[in-house]
Each structure stands twice: as C-alpha cells, then as structure tokens.
Amino acid sequence: MAGNSQRRGAVRKSNKKDAGGSGGQKRGLRGKGPTPKAEDRVYHKAYKQAQQKRRRDQGRHEKVSDGTELVVGRNPVVECLHAKVPGSTLFVALGTDNDERLQEAVRIANDRAIPIREVPRHELDRMTGNSLHQGIGLQIPPYKYMAVEDLLEKVVDSGEPGLIVCLDNITDPRNLGAVIRSAAAFGGHGVVIPERRSAAVTGVTWRTSAGTAARLPVARATNMVRSLKQFQKAGYQVVGLDAGGEHTLDTYDGTTPTVVVVGSEGKGLSRLVRETCDTIMSIPMAGWVESLNASVAAGVTLSEFARQRRAAASK
C-alpha cells in the first residue's frame, strides 16, 4: 500500500508541517525572581487589607451608602474631633479596649453634643468594609459647597476687595486643606475647586485645614474657565502662579480684587486655564529650587497680598 510499504527505502508521507523546533537544543527554564510579598500582589487578600490599613493610618474615610463618610482609627478620629470636623455620630464597637484615645474621643464628642452609638463589631466591619477600624468611627455629613455666584455675592456684601483662590489639577485633599487654612489666615474670601478631577472636602481636608473649612466657603465650579471669566466680568484680576511669568510676586499689586489660580506641582496650570489668566506670575526663589508645593505657593502669595493690603489700609 502506498505510503505504508515495508520495503527498504519506502518513505511514509505526512501532511504535518515542520513546527520549526529548537534545533535539538533544550531550553532552560528562566527564573522569575523571588515571589512578591502577599501584600504586594494585587489579587491577594493581603493586598486589599494592606491598602485598607494604609487608608486608615492616613485618616482616610470610607464612603457610606447615604453619601456620608466615616473616618476610622483612634488617632484620625481624635484629630478630626480636635479640628472641629462637623461629625454627626461617633460609632464605638462593643467590647473595644478602652484606652486614653478612646476616652478622649468620647469626651470631646460629649462636649460637642455629638451622638455616640455603640454597635456590634461586625456592624462596624460592614460599615467600613474591613476590620481595621480599631473599634471607632466618626461619621461626617457631606460638605455643603457654595455656588460660585453666591461666593461672588458674599464678597460684595463684605465690602472688601475680594481675594479668591482657585485650584487647578489639585487632587490631594491635604493640599486643599492647607490652601483653605492659608486663605483663612491671610484674609481670603473663599476657595474654588473643579467639580471633577479634584480633591474634595473630606475628613482629611478638614483635619489639614484645622477647622477653618467650617468658616471659609469652598465653591465647586462645573467649568473652571467659565468661572474665571465670571470673576473677570465682576472686576477681578485673574493671576496664575507658574514659573517664567511676566510678573513676579515682588512686582505685582495684589490690593485690587484678585483671583489666585494655583496648579499642581507636577502638571502646573492646564492650557485653557493658563490662557484665561490675565497675568502669569512667578514666585522669586533660589535658582536651584525647581518648584514649590501648591499649598506652599498659595500661602506665600496670599501672605504677600495680605501685607500689601494692610499697608494700603494704613495710608
């Protein structure tokens, strides 16, 4: 039979193609290095627990279904209470070890008439999504932002030349809290943040602002460029902080109604925001220093404008 002959010299034919092997050479297995730690593997349960612990240690809070937020951990809760964050309820898990920090949290909550609720530990686990809350959580209601139009009216009612800070590309709530604190310290009238891709007023922001977020209004802009143009129509000079500006802090007159626009340390001002500014101003500093943190740059500028306004008022 063709192709199946037993005679000498017969060749069995095959339809299979040559797979192009390794030429008879065996390949050694390549090592992938040491196995990463469990908390470094994104699919591992330990990774999620480590992330949750990191958020707790940083004082971050968990979203609750009704829009409120829950700050967990003994130190973060006590710090929020000292900063006069408007907590609505203090939750304490049943059976939690009673130490000085817990006693301090309960005492401050009682002094501020914040309701205290004891709940089963599994209930607090469910509320936070983990068991790393240290048996305590402070519920914070959603922050009530002001409309940009209402902020403009509030400044007019004050009878003072307005001083507003607008933040562009600022995503760290600590930076936002520090800017709010500086604005309050140096006579600012409010802070404006974008509605999207921006840090919001959270428990971390409250703590960093040292409670000044309770008195200095924060407005949310659906479109930052449009809001800047609103300020310009109302007679404000819009000043963007960025390196290489045509003005420096030493030469700029900040006694008139002014909006100071601060970008992130990495990205700076976005293109459209920069083009909308009336002036780009830089802060003089040592040549080997590339840039300042956003909240530091805002604080330096506001301090100088406050000095100029005090000097003008004394004349």
UniProtKB/TrEMBL annotation:
RNA 2-O ribose methyltransferase substrate binding domain ranges (all copies): 70-146
EC numbers on record: 2.1.1.185
InterPro entries, alphabetized: Alpha/beta_knot_MTases (IPR029028), Ribosomal_eL30-like_sf (IPR029064), rRNA_MeTrfase_TrmH (IPR004441), SpoU_MeTrfase (IPR001537), SpoU_subst-bd (IPR013123), tRNA_m1G_MTases_N (IPR029026)
GO molecular function: methyltransferase activity
Pfam family, one: SpoU_sub_bind
Region called Disordered, residue ranges: 1-67
PANTHER family the record matches: 23S RRNA (GUANOSINE-2'-O-)-METHYLTRANSFERASE RLMB
Family in the record: Belongs to the class IV-like SAM-binding methyltransferase superfamily. RNA methyltransferase TrmH family.
Protein name according to UniProt: 23S rRNA (Guanosine2251-2'-O)-methyltransferase
